């Protein structure tokens, strides 16, 4: 009897421990993402509407604090202070010494020279359009121009002010400054107001009327033919310059590792999650005037910069962790010259402030400099301004026998339609006109006109056009993309056959209100149908097969994917949130009524994210939120039917690279039909210790529910359903993740 009582006590003890574990686990909050990015997500277009071209983009708001609104008086005062050496400890060094207006507000040196001829370690960046930047300095250590002003003023190796009180006293001894500060600020002359005045002046350094801007506004003769070709290269899938240097600022507030050979830790020195060697993406506005280049000034000319990127940056020397957009590319001599010509077209000094001939301190002002690059720029920028087309009624323009499609497009205006008779055309078509339709005229057998790149041209069609429609075309044999539309609103792709076009078949990026329908894509080494950093995307009635990724929505808000047939890809449908992009969101995707079968193709992607896609995957939700997957037929995918994973547990990224919420949250998988999935999982999945199944969840992210019938195979064997009470979900979530973390 005593033995029985002893065992009963042990069993009761175990049950009590389990109850306590459940109570503790259920009381522990399931941790979600740390911040809500919806208010400032970055997805979609920033194009101006209405506009002559889709290249006109809204500039962001100036980075201006509420306690320092820009006024004419503060700008005028800041200009004098900027050029006055009185702000330096030895009265021999002005802000303009390192940021000279004739050097593009840089200094023409590889690295700057500070007080006492001290060699600094980084290149002096341009101040043009610095008012739009949210992160300042090469490593992004400060976020306001007011705070930025203090660092060079007080740094012992720069302007060297030891005692700011003494500096204020020096300024107060100058009657003109006393008067100017009293006019500009209610509290007169203080060190804080010195910073505020300098910041106000820097916010006035706006460049926005270059030949490119005039072209974007509808003056199509503002760019030369070479510059127009260079613009096409700039936003092509070959170079992908536009991914980091995004219009209208031609910069982004991101930090990237490009592989300049340097011991400088960059972002890693000031941010726990910063990558070693990552630096802020600088603006390309007035870039021709600001040589030399890179954070260390190690590249003397723009030609050297292009060569560096063409070689793949640090990849050429075996450096790891190079940014995904720095892959290398090939340019012939003409293409290189064209791209350089376009960079010249970003030059605009029309808002150049007057350099004062004298400053209130009476100290010498920096001398004006002869920058010979201005002559080079002038020789490149020989487009004819003021030739904006006269508005007329919309027309249908038919490509004539022997005429190129591009020639017909160049005759068009907003509202026009260009029709392409059946035939084979070996060209790349560039379209920058809004309210525009490009469509083929099928032959008597219903076959579409063919754009054939013959394996030499990078894209079939490149467009930056609001209200743009393209259809009834067969696009094949391009090296990088079939059809790319960048930065636009209201885009429709329809009735397209796209074959063997390199990275992507159809490629809307940073666009809003996108419709892809009746499109067939095969043979791409990334995604057949791809929407990146977009908002409001519909993909329907389409077919994707023989690609690495069939359909991909990347960092996209509000997508719907339905009635598509996706088969024989490496991975069928991918909904993903990737780091280091302008858009920080992937959410609200509705995936329904698709047939997703036998996506078991060998992965033939080159180096990059797509390379890690496990063969045999039907649908993968990677770090995305609020996706609903329902009423799909998912069969014959050898690794998994539906997988829900975080960026961290998937092994896709180094955690130091993540600037996004990495976990999938509030996704609902229900009412799908499964058959014969997970029968032979990819080795990469096996290496994670995960068997094949109809559904796999890595246990991360709150609010994920799986409402399928009990015949569906899953991993883990038990998945949370919508019927679970919150306490049970929290218990299971925390216990599961505790176990997973302990198992590694």
What would your notes on this structure say?
The structure is a single chain. The protein is α/β, with parallel strands linked by helices and 744 residues long. It has a domain at 1-46 and 510-744. The strands form three sheets. It has a 19-stranded parallel β-sheet that branches. An eleven-stranded parallel β-sheet has the order 6-9-11-13-15-18-21-24-27-30-32. The radius of gyration is 29 Å and the shape is globular.
The number of helices is: 15
Mean pLDDT: 89
Between the first and last Cα atoms, what is the distance in angstroms? 44 Å
Overall outline? globular
Structural class: alpha/beta
Round the Cα radius of gyration to an integer and report it.
Answer: 29 Å
Task: Give the fraction of residues assigned to helices.
Answer: 10-25%
Which runs of at least 5 residues are low in confidence (pLDDT < 50)? Answer: 1-34
Strand tally: 32
The proportion of residues in beta strands is 15-25%
- Major β-sheet profile: 19 strands, parallel
């Amino acid at each position: 009897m005593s033995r029985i009582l002893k065992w009963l006590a042990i069993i009761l003890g175990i049950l009590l421990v389990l109850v306590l574990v459940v109570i503790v686990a259920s009381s522990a909050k399931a941790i979600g993402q740390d911040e809500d990015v919806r208010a400032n997500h970055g997805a979609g277009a920033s194009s101006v509407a209405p506009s002559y071209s889709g290249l006109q983009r809204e500039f962001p708001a100036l980075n201006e604090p509420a306690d320092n609104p820009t006024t004419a008086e503060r700008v005028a005062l800041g200009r004098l202070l900027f050029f006055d050496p009185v702000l330096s400890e030895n009265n021999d060094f002005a802000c303009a010494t390192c940021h000279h207006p004739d050097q593009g507000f840089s200094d023409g040196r590889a690295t700057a020279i500070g007080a006492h001829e001290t060699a600094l370690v980084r290149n002096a960046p341009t101040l043009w359009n610095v008012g739009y930047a949210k992160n300042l300095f090469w490593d992004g250590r400060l976020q306001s121009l007011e705070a930025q002003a203090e660092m060079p003023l007080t740094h012992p190796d720069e302007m060297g002010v030891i005692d700011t009180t003494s500096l204020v006293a020096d300024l107060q001894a100058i009657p003109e400054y006393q008067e100017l500060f009293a006019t500009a600020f209610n509290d007169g002359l203080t060190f804080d107001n010195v910073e505020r005045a300098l910041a106000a002046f820097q916010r006035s350094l706006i460049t926005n009327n270059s030949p490119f801007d005039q072209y974007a506004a509808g003056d199509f003769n503002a760019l030369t033919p070479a510059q127009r070709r260079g613009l096409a290269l700039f936003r092509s899938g070959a170079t992908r310059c536009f991914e980091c240097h995004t219009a209208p600022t031609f910069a982004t507030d991101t930090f990237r590792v490009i592989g300049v050979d340097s011991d400088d830790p960059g972002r890693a020195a000031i941010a726990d999650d910063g990558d070693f060697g990552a630096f802020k993406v600088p603006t390309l506005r007035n870039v021709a005037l600001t040589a030399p280049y890179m954070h260390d000034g190690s590249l003397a000319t723009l030609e050297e910069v292009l060569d560096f990127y063409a070689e793949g940056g640090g990849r050429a020397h075996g450096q790891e962790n190079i940014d995904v957009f720095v892959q290398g590319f090939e340019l012939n001599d003409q293409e290189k010259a064209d791209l350089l010509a376009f960079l010249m077209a970003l030059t605009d000094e029309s808002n150049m402030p007057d350099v004062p001939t004298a400053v209130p301190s009476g100290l010498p002002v920096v001398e004006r400099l002869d920058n010979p690059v201005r002559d080079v720029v002038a020789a490149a920028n020989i487009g004819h301004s003021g030739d904006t087309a006269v508005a007329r009624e919309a027309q249908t323009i038919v490509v004539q026998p022997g005429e190129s499609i591009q020639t017909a497009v160049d005759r068009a205006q907003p509202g026009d339609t260009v029709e392409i008779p059946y035939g084979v055309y070996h060209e790349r078509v560039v379209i920058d006109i809004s309210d525009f339709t490009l469509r083929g005229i099928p032959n008597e057998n219903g076959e579409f006109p063919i754009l054939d790149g013959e394996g030499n041209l990078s894209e079939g069609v490149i467009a930056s056009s609001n209200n743009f429609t393209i259809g009834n075309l067969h696009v094949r044999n391009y090296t990088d993309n079939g059809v790319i539309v960048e930065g636009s609103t209201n885009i429709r792709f329809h009735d397209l056959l796209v074959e063997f076009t390199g990275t992507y078949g159809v490629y809307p990026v940073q666009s809003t209100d996108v419709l892809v329908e009746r499109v067939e894509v095969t043979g791409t080494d990334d995604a057949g149908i791809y929407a990146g950093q977009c908002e409001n995307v519909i993909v329907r009635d389409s077919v994707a097969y023989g690609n690495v990724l069939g359909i991909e929505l990347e960092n996209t808000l509000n997508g719907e994917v339905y009635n598509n047939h996706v088969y024989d890809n490496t991975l069928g449908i991918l909904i993903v949130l990737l780091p280091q992009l302008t858009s920080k969101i992937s959410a609200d995707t509705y995936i329904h009524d698709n047939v997703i079968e036998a996506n078991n193709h060998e992965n033939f992607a080159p180096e990059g994210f797509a390379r890690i896609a496990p063969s045999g995957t039907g649908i993968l939700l990677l770090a995305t939120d609020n996706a609903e997957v329902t009423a799909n037929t998912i069969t014959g995918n050898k690794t998994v039917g539906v997988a829900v994973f975080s960026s961290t547990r998937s092994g896709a990224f180094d955690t130091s690279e993540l600037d996004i919420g990495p976990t999938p949250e509030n996704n609902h998988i229900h009412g799908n039909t499964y058959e014969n999935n997970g029968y032979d999982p990819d080795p990469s999945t096996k290496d994670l210790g995960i068997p094949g199944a109809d559904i796999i969840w890595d246990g991360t992210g709150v609010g994920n529910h799986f409402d399928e019938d009990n015949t569906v195979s899953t991993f883990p064997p038990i998945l949370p359903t919508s019927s679970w009470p919150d306490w049970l979900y929290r218990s299971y979530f925390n216990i599961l993740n505790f176990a997973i973390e302990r198992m590694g």
